[in-house]
Sequence to fold (563 residues):
Amino acid sequence: MTQVITSNPTDFIRDIIDDDLQTNKNDGRVATRFPPEPNGYIHIGHAKSVCLNFGIAGQYQGTCNLRLDDTDPLGESMEYVESIIRDVRWLGFDWSDRLFYASDYFEKLYQFAVELIKSGNAYVCSLNADEVREQRGTFTEPGKESPYRNRSVEENLDMFQRMRAGEFADGAHTLRAKIDMASPNIVMRDPVIYRIKREPHYRTATKWVIYPMYDFAHCLSDALEGITYSICTLEFENNRPLYDWIVGKLITGSRPRQIEFARLNLSYTVLSKRRLIELVKKDYVQGWDDPRMPTVTGMRRRGYTPEAIRKFCAQIGVAKNDNLIDVALLEHCVREDLNDRAPRAMCVLRPLRVVIDNYPENQVEQFECANHPQNPEMGTREVPFSRVLYIERDDFHENPPKKYHRLGPGREVRLRNAYVIKFENMVLDERTGEVVELHCTYDPQTRNAPPADGRKVPGVIHWVSAQQCVPAEVRLYDRLFNIEDPGSEGEEFIDHLNPNSLDILTTCYVETNLKNAEPGSQYQFERLGYFCVDMDTVAGKPVFNRVVQLRDSWAKIAGSEKN
Ligand code: ATP
Ligand code: MG
Fold:
C-alpha cells in the first residue's frame, strides 16, 4: 500500500508549468497563492490546495502567497484569519512576508471598476436581484439585456460614485460587466461585479458599503500580486472566460492563468464550509477543533501529524475529475506515520482487576521495555509489575469463543513484556453476576522467556500495575457520519450523523510513565491503537484522544471488540 513519494511529483498542472518554463513564459517565474476566505476554519480539502500551491512554489523555486480573500463582509472575522495562519504554518508551509488581504485592494479594485466603466465595459444596473435573475436566461435561452445597459459613461461614473458614497439602499443598484447577454456561458451574461452591502467589514469597518464580487476581486488580486498560476477547484471552470475577460480588459503584460483541479471529497465526511459551520454553530460537535472534525485544527487535536496530512495529499495527487477518496486512506497515512514515530505504552481502557496469588505481597519489579520495537534509538522505559494488575475486561472470557487466545477458565496467557499467568478462579458480583476480579498464578520462569516445558501460550495481552498506574480519561472517536457520502446532493447531512462518534471512557489506567505526558504528544497503546494527549489534560490526570485504531485481524476474530 505504501507508495514511494518522489520529491518532485508530476501532474497536469506541473506539466503546464514545465511547458511554460520551456518557452520562458513569465520570465520563468512561478508564483502561486493559497486564497482562503476567512469565513471558517480550513479543512483537509484546503490542505490539499495548500500542499499543491506551496508544493509547486517549493519545487520550482517560486513563491506562494497566503492571501485572505476577504471581500464579502458577511461571516468573515479575525478569529478565522488567525486560525488560517496558524493552520497553514502548522501544515509546514511558509509564505515569508507575503501575507496579503484582498480587502487591502478595495481602493485599487474600485479604480479598476472605474476604468471598466470609462472604457464602456461596465454599467450601473438598477434592476433588483430577482429581475437580474429572471433576465439572465437559461442554458437553452439567451438572457435579456438590461434597460440600463446603455447608460452613458458619465451617468455610470456618477451612479457608481454615489453607490460608494452610500446614497442607495442595499440591492438598489449593481455594477455589471457589459459582456454578452446571449453568451452560451451564463457566467458571461453581464455578471454583477459590485453590489451594495451595508455590512461592516472586520478590517475596513464601515469604510465601504459596496463590495466587489468574487469573480472581479479574485483575478485582479492575482494580477496585483503577480501570480502566474491561479489554481482553483473545478467549479470555477465556467468562470474562467470571465477571469480572462476581466484580466484582459484591465491588465497589460504578464497575466495570471487560472487552472482548475478536482476538489477533495472524502468519504464519511463533509467538507463544505457552510456545513461545517452548521455543525459548530448548532453544537453537533464541540467546536472547530473537535477531534471528529475534518478541520486542520480538529485533526491536530485528534493527533494527526502534518507529515501524515502532507503524505496523504501527495498520495491522492491532483486530477481533473471529481471523485470520492476513501477516508481510510487518510487514516492509513496517519497510522503509518505514527507507527514510525509514536513510542509504545500500555493502557487499559476497561479495567478488570487481577490478583496474582503466588506473587509476593509487596514486591515490585521494574521491567525494561523498548519504547519502539523497530527503533532502538527511541530508548527504553521501566514498567512496574506487582501482585495486583489491571487487564482489559475483553481479555477475559468466561466461555471463550473459538479462536479466542486470551484468558479464560483453565487458560494461560502472556502478559506483554512480563510473565505468563494462569487463571485460577474469579470473583463475581453477588447481585449482577458480573466478573469483578480474577485470581491467577504466574510462572516465574517465563519472564520474557517461553515456558520451560515447551507448552504453547499463544495469547499476549497488555496490563498495568494497579498500585503504580495513573487514572486517565480516553476518548474514542468514530466517523462523524454513518453514510459514505453525506455531502452529496439531496442528502440532509445532519440526518446521517453517527450517534456513536464519541465514546468517553473515564475509568482507564495508563502506565506511570505517562503521568505527565505532554499535551499533543502521541503514543501507541499496545494492541489498542494510536492516542494523543488532549489539551484538556490536567496535571496528573491525562486525557487521551484515540487518533486511529490499529488494524488488527485479532479484533475481528474476537468479534466482541468495538474498539
Ligand atoms: P465553500 O466550501 O463554501 O465553497 P471553500 O471551501 O471554497 O468554500 P475558500 O476559502 O474559498 O473556501 O477556499 C480556499 C481555497 O481552497 C480555494 O482555492 C479552494 O479552491 C480550495 N479548496 C476549498 N475546498 C477544497 C477541497 N475540498 N479540495 C481542494 N481544494 C479546496
Ligand atoms: Mg470557495
